[in-house]
């Protein structure tokens, strides 16, 4: 067995550790299990997490949106984190947070950032000038001598994951990271996504369904999520409308209610489009108040249909069957629970998700 990157004596004698990552909800849906297992392996450690905002900007008009990133609600509820740094979305707040981390004198800092890892190597060293710093290291090209200088700030680098047969799930990558760091082993069963939903948000979801008239217990509930962060991974509202009308024409789905999940900034346009299509027993939803509004609603569904984004992973976490619409580009991100997931992929590797037809989805539903 290879020597772990964090020396055992340092790990046992330290009282805290800081992880640095640029996180999306989908990432954390799987990383959560590894942080939980690491906390159980090292009960003497206070585990702090630095969430670096890659959309950091000096434009003050965007700060409120970035401040309310719903992932922060989930992180705040996780019992295995001692402190979460979330004020990194503006240059000034970044510097304040750096000073706060430096004052904590972390003996160990681990960067799990895979995007621009050389920059995060430098950031990790800033956060702990005297501690042990471990991070990712990308291949250095001949025109990137400054990357060499950045990686010299690391005391150790996490080796790149390589699948033996070329086939792997993103959890295999995360398992590799933590195995290298501390010898941690997380088996397949322990990698299943989960989310602990506070009771108040379960009750709020039930009240919301009642307000829509969707709580009679006789009709199925279908949640459709066509939105992702990039257009390449989105489905169109026109396709959503066609799918709903087609499902309503099928005997097994005729008595169904439909919820379209939308990101807050798309709600005005989505309302116009849904009204134009005159869809029956169909409403729009967005988790505008708290992250847990989303999994609490998903938990009430009989079927979830989602493009490749957090919703399709959360479907596994709340144990609801999901039909995932994906490109061919990143097969390692398929939903983990294969028994309750149906993946529909584009025909060509370069195709966007919108190239998946309504007919393909209907076939998957059938």
Descriptive overview:
It contains 14 helices and twelve strands. With 366 residues, it is of the alpha/beta class. It has two domains: 8-191, Rossmann fold (3-Layer(aba) Sandwich), CATH 3.40.50.2000; 200-365, Glycogen Phosphorylase B (Rossmann fold, 3-Layer(aba) Sandwich), CATH 3.40.50. Strands 3-2-1-4-5-6 form a six-stranded parallel β-sheet, sandwiched between helices. Strands 9-8-7-10-11-12 form a six-stranded parallel β-sheet, with helices on both faces. The model has no long low-confidence stretch (mean pLDDT 95).
State the CATH class of the largest domain: Alpha Beta
Q: Largest beta sheet, briefly?
A: 6 strands, parallel
* Main structural class: alpha/beta
Helix count from the secondary structure assignment: 14
Q: What is the count of β-strands? A: 12
Nutshell version of this structure?
The protein has 366 residues and is of the alpha/beta class.
Topology:
Layout: H1 8-13, E1 16-21, H2 25-41, E2 46-51, H3 63-67, H4 71-77, E3 83-85, H5 91-104, E4 108-111, H6 117-127, E5 132-136, H7 145-151, E6 156-158, H8 170-182, H9 199-212, E7 220-225, H10 237-248, E8 256-261, H11 267-277, E9 282-285, H12 293-298, E10 303-307, H13 310-317, E11 322-326, E12 341-345, H14 358-365
Parallel strand pairs: 1-2, 1-4, 2-3, 4-5, 5-6, 7-8, 7-10, 8-9, 10-11, 11-12
Helix pairs in contact: 2-8, 2-13, 6-7, 10-14
């Amino acid at each position: 067995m290879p020597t772990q990157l964090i020396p055992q004596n340092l790990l046992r004698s330290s009282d805290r550790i800081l992880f640095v990552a640029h996180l999306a909800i989908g990432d954390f849906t799987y990383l959560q299990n590894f942080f939980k297992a690491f906390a159980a392996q090292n009960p003497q450690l206070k585990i702090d997490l630095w969430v670096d905002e890659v959309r950091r900007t000096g434009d003050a008009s965007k700060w409120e949106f970035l401040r309310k990133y719903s992932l922060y609600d989930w992180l705040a509820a996780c019992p295995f984190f001692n402190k979460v740094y979330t004020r990194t979305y503006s240059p000034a707040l970044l510097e304040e947070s750096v000073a706060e981390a430096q004052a904590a004198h972390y003996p160990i800092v681990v960067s799990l950032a895979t995007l621009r890892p050389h920059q995060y190597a430098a950031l990790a060293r800033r956060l702990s000038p005297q501690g042990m710093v471990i991070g990712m290291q990308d291949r250095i090209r001949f025109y990137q001598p400054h990357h060499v200088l950045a990686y010299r700030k690391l005391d150790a680098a996490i080796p790149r994951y390589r699948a033996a047969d070329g086939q792997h799930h993103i959890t295999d990558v995360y398992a590799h990271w933590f195995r290298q760091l501390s010898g941690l082993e997380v088996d397949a069963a322990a990698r299943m996504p989960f989310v602990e939903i506070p009771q108040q948000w379960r009750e709020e979801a039930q009240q919301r369904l009642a307000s829509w008239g969707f709580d009679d217990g006789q009709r199925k509930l279908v949640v459709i999520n066509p939105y992702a962060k990039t257009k390449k991974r989105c489905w169109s509202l026109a396709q959503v409308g066609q799918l709903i009308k087609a499902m309503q024409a099928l005997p097994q789905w005729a008595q169904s209610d439909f919820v379209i999940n939308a990101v807050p900034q798309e709600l005005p346009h989505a309302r116009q489009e849904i009204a134009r299509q005159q869809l029956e027993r169909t409403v729009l939803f967005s988790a505008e108040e708290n992250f847990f509004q989303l999994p609490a609603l998903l938990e009430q569904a009989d079927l979830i249909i989602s493009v490749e984004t957090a919703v399709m992973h959360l479907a596994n976490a709340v144990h609801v069957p999901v039909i995932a619409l994906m490109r061919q580009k990143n097969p390692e991100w398929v939903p983990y629970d294969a028994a309750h997931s149906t993946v529909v992929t584009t025909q060509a590797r370069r195709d966007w998700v919108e190239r998946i037809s309504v007919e393909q989805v209907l076939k998957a539903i059938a």
